[in-house]
Design brief:
single chain, about 260 residues, alpha+beta, Hypothetical Protein Pfu-838710-001, 7 helices, 10 strands, globular
Length: about 260
């Protein structure tokens, strides 16, 4: 079954949700949070969305519910930030420039995973300009908020995708679902359009309708970050021992999609 057919089904389900606007989401920014990731085969997403509809609203921006994101990640020449994730180090960072295409907003963002397992996100608004080297404002912000040195960081991975953002009707919880993932590094481009990366974001870890739905469909937590997946996929030389199990799980999800698609022809 063609990818486009599943995307059409997903879009149809998205428009059945009650909508929420960016202004209405002010109270659930969750810049200090607990987050958990999941991988979902694309063919299962319409069913997951159907099950989630009574519990969540869906973000709509300029008449779009599958919103476009462009993200440029920064790291050192020797992948210091990637290897901090690969080794499971606490107090680690991701540094990125993100263009929220449909809302026409761009931010330079820093994500810090602290030693208590919380994700702390800080950012500054920036013009929509993708720069290989950090400008003065970004460099000052980076060095004020992290122990990192700005002159050691350079852009090293571009990630494009579509995102749906769901907001819990009754508690401070957001859910993002990223699909049509495209990773670009130098001349290498890798596309994962058979799977969805979902992330549950909560003020504190607690009960969640979407986690119950994931369990119902035998989806388990613990998938790899988009940045680490992108580096592994576009640079065959990079070390990824700690991610091997997660990478095999990703391949299994893709195989599940391919098997389902063949059976549906």
């Amino acid at each position: 079954m063609n990818i486009d057919i599943f995307l059409e089904k997903i879009n149809d389900e998205a428009w059945l949700f009650e909508k929420i606007t960016l202004d209405q989401m002010e109270g659930v920014k969750l810049m200090d949070r607990i987050d958990v990731k999941y991988l979902i085969p694309l063919h299962l997403l319409p069913i997951v969305l159907h099950d989630a509809r009574e519990h969540y609203k869906l973000l709509e921006i300029n008449n779009e519910r599958l919103c476009s994101y462009e993200t440029l990640y920064y790291d050192t020449e020797d992948y210091q930030l990637y290897h901090s994730h690969q080794s499971g180090r606490l107090n680690r960072y991701k540094v990125r420039f993100r263009n929220y295409v449909d809302s026409n907003l761009s931010f330079f963002e820093i994500k810090h995973k602290n030693n208590k397992g919380r994700t702390l996100k800080t950012r500054i608004k920036q013009p929509n300009t993708f720069e290989k080297v950090l400008n003065i404002e970004k460099a000052e912000f980076l060095e004020k908020t992290t122990p990192l040195s700005a002159n050691e960081l350079k852009a090293n991975l571009l990630v494009n995708y579509k995102r749906m953002t769901l907001v819990n009707n009754t508690s401070k919880e957001r859910l993002t679902m990223d699909l049509d993932l495209t990773f670009i590094k130098n001349q290498n481009e890798v596309v994962y359009n058979q799977l969805v990366v979902a992330e549950v974001k909560q003020e504190k870890l607690g009960a969640s309708p979407i986690i119950d739905i994931f369990k119902k469909h035998n989806l388990r937590a613990g998938s790899i970050s988009k940045y680490c997946l992108g580096i592994m996929s576009t640079d065959q030389e990079v070390k990824h021992n700690r991610f091997k199990t997660k990478f095999l799980h990703l391949k299994k999800i893709i195989t599940q999609y391919d098997s389902f698609a063949r059976a549906s022809i």
